[in-house]
Amino acid sequence: AVVSTQSTGTDVVINLSGKSIGQPGFWVKSLKKTIYDSRIDTTKKLATAIERSESPPKVFISASAVGAYSLDPDKVYTEADVPVESGKETFFTDLCRDWEASSTLPEGCPTRVVNPRFGVVLAHDTDPLKLLLKLAITGSSVVGSGKQPFPWIHMKDAVQAVHTCIEDESVQGPVNLVAPQIVDNKQFTHALANACLAGVQKVNLPEFLVRLMYGTERADCILLDSPKVAPQKLLDLGFQFQYEDVDSAMRDIVEAECKEGGVLNMYMRKKKG
């Protein structure tokens, strides 16, 4: 998105730009730079354009992620918490910190800034979930210990939550876009398997293999650990989640995927007889 300094009548700017972090591979220096620059540089350009605009938008929605928070297994993070304690920084926490900071507008600018901190957005038409749905036919695997938190939100709820952030003028700053149900990787894996009428592998995917596939740094702060996060601001606003639990979310996603035909649809029809 580009906002011209001459633009008029623009009510909302939504910035979701950024190189995907979901594809396999090590976080080598060049990839980390691409991930970083694709978020921070674009956001800075948009913020500068808004600042210079003769008729700036009413609201600037600029994405972030729950990766902003520390990996403390005993804490459930809300927007009121300091995202990361000193000494616990990672590439991901630094990325989110700078991502949000780059959306900051100067005092006196009338544009309201909101930073949705997205959890894993569950949608059937994304490449990672399409792969998981295909693998589920042969049996899903719990990753590592399976005890690591899995902060998630259904795509439909994510879209509606962003709409709420746009419409409610009281909302500003970080907003956790996660479902109210806190689950771990094991619970998510079983919800996926149950929705597909399939089983779960008896042996978990070993941590060393995850690190071998993704690299230690990437695996340890995304796949083998994540923060526990609550959508406190949304709950305080009375936001109604359509999918509050991961089981109903995965059933909806599997149903949507089956409507497109393909291998999963054939498998499900066979299982249902």
Report on this model:
This protein is an alpha/beta fold and 273 residues long. 42% of the residues lie in helices and 12% in strands. It contains ten helices and nine strands. The strands form three sheets. Strands 1, 2, 3, 5 and 8 form a five-stranded parallel sheet that branches. The protein has a two-stranded parallel ribbon with strand order 4-9. Strands 6-7 form a two-stranded parallel ribbon. Helix 1 runs parallel beside helix 2 and helix 5 crosses helix 9.
What can be said about this structure in brief?
The chain has about 270 residues and is of the alpha/beta class.
- Percent helix: 40-55%
Proportion in β-strands: 5-15%
Calculate the terminal CA-CA distance, rounded to whole Å. Answer: 48 Å
- Structural category is alpha/beta
Question: Strand count, sense and closure of the main sheet?
Answer: 5 strands, parallel
Number of helices: 10
Uncertain runs with pLDDT below 50, 5 residues or more?
1-6
Radius of gyration: 20 Å
* Backbone shape: globular
Work out the number of β strands: 9
The average pLDDT is 90
The SSE order reads: EHEEEHEEHEHEHHHEHHH
